[in-house]
Amino acid sequence: REVTEKLEEVVMIWTKQIRQVLVESEQIRREADDVGPSAELEHWKSRMSSFNSLLDEIKSSRVKKIISILQAARSKTLQQWKELDRRITIAANEAKDNVRYLYTLDKFFGPLAHASPVMMEHIPSLMNTVFMIYCTSPYYNTSEHMTSLFLKITNQMINTCKTYLCEG
């Protein structure tokens, strides 16, 4: 009984820490007004790395042993733990999926940043790729994500035009 209580305390500490990570990941991002689309890819790569590390820790043998002991003791803390495990898995899958889709846009980011203002040749392919992401991604096809991406693409186009005008 005493061992079970100690292990429940440990799991409750982990639960609190994981909840904090989830809350922070769901907060609105603060970014510079002129940030380009490569920042979107970097954000999701960072998030993927964080959640994959957290998943690796949750799936470690040490954690599995503690959880199996609590399962045998029919601990009530496991309900919360299972819910957090599910949420972490979803967040990791979302980040991985978004990185995979955003990498399809990566080939456009360089030309978009370094082209002359006559960048029209890149726009149709870029928009087709964005459309493909919108149609096929199970996570990235939200209004919020698409708006953020289009804002960053537009910012990059404006920055490219500014650079062209100042150097020309």
Automatic annotation (TrEMBL):
Q: Which InterPro entries match?
A: DHC (IPR026983), Dynein_heavy_tail (IPR013594)
Occurrences of domain Dynein heavy chain tail (ranges): 5-166
Gene Ontology MF term list: dynein intermediate chain binding; dynein light intermediate chain binding
| BP terms from Gene Ontology | microtubule-based movement
Do you know which Pfam families this protein is assigned to? DHC_N1 (PF08385)
GO terms under cellular component: axonemal dynein complex
This protein's name: DYH5 protein
Please name the source species. Answer: Loxia curvirostra
Q: Which gene encodes it?
A: Dnah5_0
